[in-house]
C-alpha cells in the first residue's frame, strides 16, 4: 500500500505526481529531492533506495536518469515497492516507446491514465501491458527518435559485422508506425550481472551470476515462439548428466514467465511461449558454478617515505579481442589521512579519466573502453597529512570495478535458435539476439 507516486527529473522538477491516499504532506517531493541531493549520512555519497524522514517512508529507483518515487506511512515490504516502481517504469516505456522527460511531458494524460489503472487507492491492480490494453484508450504521442541523444557505448550492441538499430527498441508496443505499417521484429536479450570477489593473491573467493532472458516482441498477431537453449544445460547442482562433460552449463536454479510452456524443456531445452505485449523476463536464473571472470585486477601498494606511498593498479581483460568492454570505472578507498593524489597514466592512454574524491578519500579511474586481451595500468602517488601507524594495506581498499560488456556472457548460456510460427512462406520477421554482461559486485582485496 503506497500513498503517493511521483517522477522527478535530474533537476528535481516534478514531472508526474499522483496522491492516492492523502496521508503524506504535499511537499514530500521537495523533501525527498533535497534529502537525496545532499545525502551525507553513514559516510555514503548516495542515498539508499529506502529511507525514512519524519515518519514517511521514501522508496526510489533511478531509471534512465529519472527518479521514480513512492511514499507511504505504512510498514510495507521494501522489495515489493521497489519492484513495483521498476514495473511502472517498464509499463510506461512499453506505451511511450521512449522513456525520458520529454516523452513523459508530452504524454502526461496517457501516463496518468496508466497510473490510475495500475494502482487504485494505493493498492496494486496490475502491471501487465497486455491486460492494460483493455482499459487504456489514449494513444501515445511518439517522440521522434532522431531527436534523441546518441546512445552511449554501453547501449550499442554488435552482432557479427552488423550494428543493431539503435532506435529499434524505442518504439511503442501499442502505436502504429507512420503509414500504418509495423516492422515485424523480436528482441531477445541475455543480461547477466556477475559478482566476483578476489583474494589479495588473485584467487577467486566467491563468484555468482544473476541472469535474465528478456524479450520484447513487435510481432503482429502474437505468434508462438520456440526458444532453444544449450542442450547441455543442467538445472540444480545435483543435476549432472554423465553425457555432458566439463563444458556443460549448470544453473543453480531458475524460474520462468507465466506464458512459458515447458512441455519439451526436459527433452531438448526448448521453451515455447506466446509473447505478451511489452518487455518481459522469459527466464531468470542464478549460477554459482565456477566461471572465468572477464577481468583480473592486480594492486600493489608501496610506502615511499614517512608521508608518501605509491599505488599501482593493473586491469587485464581476459576475453577475446573481438569484444570491447565499455564504461569501466575502478574505485579504491584510500587511507583517511590522504590529502593529495598525483596520477600517472600509461603512455598513449586515450579516453581515461582520474579523480580523487576528497569527501570520502576515494580514488576513481574511468576508462571509456577496454579491448579484450589488453592491459591498462594506473600509478597514483599518495601524500598523507600524518605518518601512518600500521600496515598501509589495511587502511586502503578493497578495489571495486563496474563495467558493461556487450555481446559477451560469462555463463556460456546461449540461444541456439529462435523459431517463429510462420503465417506464410513470405513471413520472415527480424530476429535480434543480444548478450550483455554487467558488474553487480566486482571486488579485489588488497
From TrEMBL:
InterPro entries: Adaptor_comp_med_subunit, AP2_Mu_C_sf, AP_mu_sigma_su, Clathrin_mu, Longin-like_dom_sf, MHD. It is found in: Endomembrane system. It comes from the Eukaryota. One of its GO terms (biological process) is protein targeting. Keywords: Membrane, Protein transport, Transport. Residues 183-445 form the MHD domain. One of its GO terms (cellular component) is clathrin adaptor complex. Its main location: membrane. Belongs to the adaptor complexes medium subunit family. This is MHD domain-containing protein. It comes from Populus trichocarpa. The lineage of its organism: Eukaryota, Viridiplantae, Streptophyta, Embryophyta, Tracheophyta.
